[in-house]
Specification:
407 residues, alpha/beta, 7-stranded mixed beta sheet, 4-stranded antiparallel beta sheet, 39% helix, globular
Length: 407
């Protein structure tokens, strides 16, 4: 595969970091990706030369800052096939999903049904727990099949005429299973229910066109696609969101306020109360543009090669149990090891400069059903090399042997 890995790695100075004397091998991209220098420079340039609040002034800096902010919105809209007014900037995926749950409270009554899959990150499960408790709605769990896939047939079985919301991940942050959200959202829409997609993992591993997927809401974070933290996106289908109440009130979301009337701005501004992270939005746009110059299909293919190498290697290590065997796996792979605590393995790997994720992975509902307290997760990114995967596999075997000797 003709992939310019060395040129790409040059854009990430953090990769030159020494960790306990060893070169950093960063395999925790599902948690946070790193920013290339192009993104850092774009944000720094805005802060140094154009910094001013947006939509709030007629002076030069404010107008230019607003232009860059709205240009970033257009970049995001083009990136996922949305309309300008359907892109709402948030602080991240969690913020976006909570905004949706707050707004949808207006359509939920006691006895209505909310469905969330067992694969969900806490950020796309807990808001629905909260909403069900506040409204008296029933929260139903959509179970995956034995391989970890979400079955359309299973969803059909549990949906009813009182189903109002279906919340699901685009790509699991535990097993990496990629969900065919187009087919699922088509079914959900045909019943009149609302689909809410957690795209935090999927956005970096699948080309998204919200017109094709047909979802009502799709949330993701910039820091999952080589942008900064503190900025995210909520796609809100105009037909689904236009009549919903604004989740938060404050400066920037109102057209006029009197003692007797509050008249909100049109979408998307009425969902953006308060000063937005406009510098973060500039960084997100640069991340999208920069990745686009590399060819997103090439980046996705490289990530798949790395994941395949990882999975093959793990399958050849006795005592390793990979979570799930989905039809399509993207972005990450999680596993447990017999008789060895994931935290111990993670610390030994860290001693060799290898960064992996250990813990509950913010997916308590899924881990409980798997009878697992903790897991290890590997999530390669665009800047990782095949040799780094090989080093990880070698050090994992050494660590398991060392820890196994203590049993």
């Amino acid at each position: 595969m003709n992939y310019p890995i060395e040129e790409i790695r040059k854009a990430f100075p953090i990769l030159h970091t020494l960790v306990h004397g060893s070169p950093l091998i960063y395999l925790d991209n599902a948690a946070t990706t790193h920013m290339p220098t192009q993104v850092i420079h774009a944000m720094t340039s805005h802060a140094l030369t154009l910094n001013a609040n947006v939509h709030r002034g007629s002076h030069y800096l404010s107008e230019r800052s607003t232009e860059e902010y709205e240009r970033a919105r257009k970049t995001v809209a083009d990136f996922i096939g949305a309309k300008h007014e359907e892109i709402i900037f948030t602080s991240g995926t969690t913020d976006g999903l909570n905004k949706v749950s707050i707004a949808l409270k207006s359509i939920i009554s006691k006895g209505d049904e909310i469905i969330a899959s067992r694969l969900e990150h806490n950020s796309n499960y807990l808001p629905w727990v909260k909403l069900s408790r506040e409204t008296g709605a029933n929260l139903t769990i959509w179970e995956p099949d034995e391989k970890g896939n979400l079955s359309l047939e299973n969803l059909t079985t549990i949906m009813s005429e009182r189903t109002k919301i279906v919340a699901l991940t685009h790509c699991s942050n535990v097993s990496g299973v990629l969900i065919d959200i187009s087919r699922i959202c088509s079914l959900i829409r045909s019943t009149g229910a609302i689909s809410v997609i957690d795209g935090a993992q999927g956005i970096g591993h699948e080309m998204i066109d919200v017109r094709i997927t047909g979802c009502d809401f799709y949330a993701f974070s910039a820091h999952k696609i080589h942008g900064p933290t503190g900025i995210g996106v909520l796609y809100a289908n105009k037909d689904s969101a236009e009549e919903l109440p604004a989740p938060f009130w404050g400066g920037g979301m109102v057209e006029n306020v009197t003692e007797s009337e509050v008249r909100s701005e049109a979408m998307p501004y009425r969902w953006e109360a308060g000063t937005p992270n406009y510098i973060g939005a500039v960084g997100l746009a640069e991340a999208i543009n920069w990745t686009g110059t590399l060819g997103r299909e090439h980046v996705h293919s490289w990530s798949e090669c790395l994941l395949e190498r990882t999975e093959t290697g793990l399958n050849n290590i006795p005592g390793v149990h990979i979570i799930g065997n989905p039809s399509v796996r993207k972005g990450c792979i999680s596993f447990a090891t017999e008789g060895i605590h994931p935290f111990d393995l993670a610390k030994l790997l860290d001693a060799k400069g290898i960064a992996v994720r250990s813990g509950k992975l913010c997916a308590h509902l899924l881990l409980t059903s798997l009878n697992r307290d903790y897991l290890l997760r590997i999530s390669p990114g665009m800047f990782n090399t095949l040799s780094e995967i090989d080093v990880f596999l070698t050090e994992l075997k050494k660590s398991m042997k060392l820890l196994g000797g203590r049993r």
